[in-house]
Each structure stands twice: as structure tokens, then as C-alpha cells.
Amino acid sequence: MSIQVRPLDAPLGAEVSGFDPRNITPEVANELNQAFLKHHVLVVHGPGLTDDELIEFGKSFGHIEAARKISPLASRPEIMVISNIRMNGELVGSLPDGEMNFHFDRIHQKKPNKAGVLQGIEIPSKGGNTSFSNMVMAYETLPDALKTKLDGLTALNTFEYGTTIDKDKALAADAPQANHPLVRTIPETGKKSIYACRLMTDRINELPAAESRALLDELCDHVENPKFVYEHVWKVGDILVWDNRCTSHARTDFDASERRLMKRVTVGDDREPIR
Ligand code: OGA
Ligand code: MN
Q1: Which residues of 215-232 are buried (b: 16+ CB within 10 A; e: fewer)?
Q2: Between 3.30.1380.20, 3.60.15.10, 3.40.250.10, 3.60.130.10, what CATH number should domain 4-267 receive?
């Protein structure tokens, strides 16, 4: 059996079909992983999966990490609920409202996760789109002099609980943090990828503060250029799989009075980012 892989009309991403996400054979898993490495984002259209099925599907891409927060809407600790829904006044999930700046999930960890698998369950009528930037293409289009300048630099990445917009970030002393290469190589493909994002990358360690700020602003503006970005408009039952090593992602704003419910499983990595 061969799956169908249809590249999106976008700088990254492919729609994959012709298989049952509830029954992934080793052969299909292999084809999905090839498509994942080539296109960086996979789009699967329905059917809606149960929590158990979503976890099993996620295992096609590696081992599953636990969610940080247990939700009353999750039947297993691997399920991360992303939602603005409140029950008895309490949020049932993480990342509830509105816009999110571009980021890599868990880049504040020494070993950030390899992939994210996100299913749309309740979608607002407008907005709440998820955008992905192709960080390999963004790297490859940099001028050679800038590539040379970036080579060997490292950056500090931090996570501030409760903030999804960079300008609101007021870093607490206990905010988790990790240093990583500013350009990382994806082991399976040998491709280089920019590893900095607006929300979580705070400074380049080897440069004076002002120079670091200017270079990070330049890189973030560059990678957020629409020519590197695919913006996904969700339909109920869609599942997106993204390579969290070489894509960064963001979310557009949406009306807080509308419900939005997504479930994610997080695929761990076996190794730390390499230069
Ligand atoms: C995530 C995330 C964006 C969204 O799941 O890591 O950033 O669209 N989600 O909710
Ligand atoms: Mn995210």
C-alpha cells in the first residue's frame, strides 16, 4: 500500500491520505515519516480520533511525552488539551485565548520535542488559524555572509508561563530555560534550519546585548515573511503533524466568546539539537 502525498500550494506542508490513521502499519508509518521529513508539516483530514487513537497515531513518529497539565477533558496523561473552554469557571486546557507568536514547542528544554500532533475538535467560525514557517527554506535563502556569521552562535530560550505574546513577557526568575545552537542541523536530512523564534528566544549568547537584539529581530522578521509560511484554516477532525525541529508555529487571534478545543500529543526526540 502507498499513501497519497499531495504537496500544499505553500512553502511547506503536504496533505496525506489513502490510509486509516486508526490503523497504521509499519509500511504506512515509514511513508508518513518520509513525507514528514520532506514536507515538515502533514495535514490529515478526519476522521476524528479518540484520545487513545490519537496517541497511537502519534507513535508513528516516535515516543510520546506526557502533557504538562492534566485536563478533565483528557482521558490519558499524554493528551494535552488546548482550549478556551471553562468548566465551573476553571479553564480545562492550556493556551486558551487569542494570538500566539511564532515559537517552537518546549524549546526551553534541553531536549525539545521532535514533533507535535494536533487535532481540531471544536473550531471557531473565524480565526484561530495555525501558521507554520519553513525554517530550512528561511535558512537557505539567507545571504552567505549572514550564514557565516550565524555559524557557531548559540541562543538562550526561555518559557514564561501564561504568556503567548512576546511583548507581555516579563521573565520570572524561575522561568525554565535552555541554550541551543542558533542554526541546527536535522540529523536525517543534513539540512540546516534557523532555530530562533519571537516568543521564546531571548538572546544570542556570544553577542553584546544590542547586537543580539538586532540580529534576533532581523531573523524573526525574516522567518515570519509570508513567503516561508503556510497558514492552516482548521476543519473539525483535521490532524496536523509538524516537525518541531525545523518549523516554528503561531496562532492568529479569534473571538474569545467562541469555543475552541484541540488535543495534542507530543512526540519526544532522542537527542539534543546539534549544530
Ligand atoms: C501547540 C500550539 C496552536 C494552536 O499546540 O503547540 O501552539 O493553534 N497550538 O492552538
Ligand atoms: Mn505550540
Answers
A1: bbeebbebbbeeebbbeb
A2: 3.60.130.10
